[in-house]
Design a protein that fits this description.
elongated; about 55 residues
C-alpha cells in the first residue's frame, strides 16, 4: 500500500467559524471579560484546529 502525500489546501478552504453567546457570568461588574472565559474560547479554537489537521 502506497501512502498518498497530504493534500495541500488554501487557508480559505480550512476556515472555521466559532460563535459563543456570552452572558453576565463571562464578565466582571466593570464589563471586562474574565480570563477563564477567554482561555476557554482559545482552548475550543485549538481543539477545532487540531481535529481538522489530524484527519
Amino acid at each position: 500500500m502506497i501512502d498518498e502525500p497530504p493534500r495541500r489546501q488554501a487557508p480559505r478552504d480550512t476556515a472555521s467559524l466559532l460563535m459563543y453567546r456570552t452572558g453576565v457570568r463571562d464578565a466582571s461588574v466593570a464589563g471586562n471579560a474574565h480570563g477563564g472565559s477567554v482561555m476557554k474560547l482559545c482552548d475550543d479554537a485549538a481543539v477545532i484546529a487540531a481535529t481538522w489537521f489530524t484527519r
